[in-house]
Amino acid sequence: MVGVILLLFIICYCHATITKNQVEVNIDFTPFPKRTMEFSVEGDHLKQYHFTLPLNESLQMTQFTCIENGKELQFEVIAKPENETIEVIVDLLDQQKNKFTCKYLHIDALENYPKERSLSEKYKFLFTTHLCPLSDHIKCTTLFNLKSIQSIAFSIKSTTEGSNRLKFGPYEPTEFKFISYHFQSSLHPMTYGRVQKVVNINEDNIYVHMEIDDMKNNGAILNKEFNRNDFNYEGIYLKDFSMEVEVNAYDLEYRDSTGLITTGRLISRPKSSTLYLPPRYPLLGGWKTSFEVNYNYPLDVSVQQIKEQKRLVIPLKVDFKGIVSNEEVDIVLPEGATITSINYPKRSYIEETVYNQPSFGTYYKKPVVQLILKEVDMSDNTDILEIYYKENPAAKRTKNIIVAFLTSSIIIIFLLYAKVINN
What we know:
By secondary structure, the protein is mainly beta. The protein is built from three helices and 31 strands.
């Protein structure tokens, strides 16, 4: 009997209860829709927090993170097809009071409206989304930032805050409420199938090789023939492309499958360098291209000597506007180097691999740190990769000896061959 009473006491005492459950949702464009949800949750014995999102939208979201006090929270996503929902379970830091932020991007959420058009038609997007997540006893407020709105449809009363924002709530949602609207935009909704950035750490400089595959303008497709001058009147097209790179960059090489593109140029400034990369043909709606870029920059821009080891700092961001489906960053260190530490924010959408790569002229191999990022909005990525490593002086000496031996051997063979021919 005493045991039963004690068990009931423990169950009652340890049962999690919520006394405050509020969320403020902000929906903005960067240029793709970004949702930020600021949760304020209070109660007793709160170890986890549950909320629900529509299943169809979960198939279109990426870069999902939850952060409290600068620390990324662990979470689990459970699909419930029978209810057409997903449940997100967030592990909390404080059992009594928590204030954390979850955010994600809506990828593939924008539809061209119309999907095909003539040059005289206005360019519009159609965006449909839910207003608030669902949770127990939740009170929700949604702020919807507008961009050149054309028409709007929603199932809950809103109030206008200024000329560019709608406010919904606060209210207690019992079901998903959706909003749909058309808007005009002069933004290029660019997407990238694959971006690979290979950073080679050499003795005196750093060499960067980049491959960009399937860079696509997702604008509405033109449904009529047009001549070469018509694109000047096209509202959404890409005729020039620029990206910020490391300071004091030099020796730009810009090419596609046809060959070198001589219109590319590099402008260096005291604090940054800019690559200007016009595609071989302007990118109209539905058009895409692939290309590669090579350049160098000084070693001391990214590498510092810290006592007996070196510190390499590389931004994971590639200066693109739009969603990159697959980004690969390869850091190739000098032959024989030993990695002592690798530091970067551990994101759920990042995969890390470390392996050794053979090197010419020496039996020492080059360590390679490879990071693969899935479905990333580059304009919203500020993460930094930091690598500490130690160089191997013997590797450099060995390589110099082997290269000198190979060079002298080639010269001797050439001289012997010339002597045989002359005789």
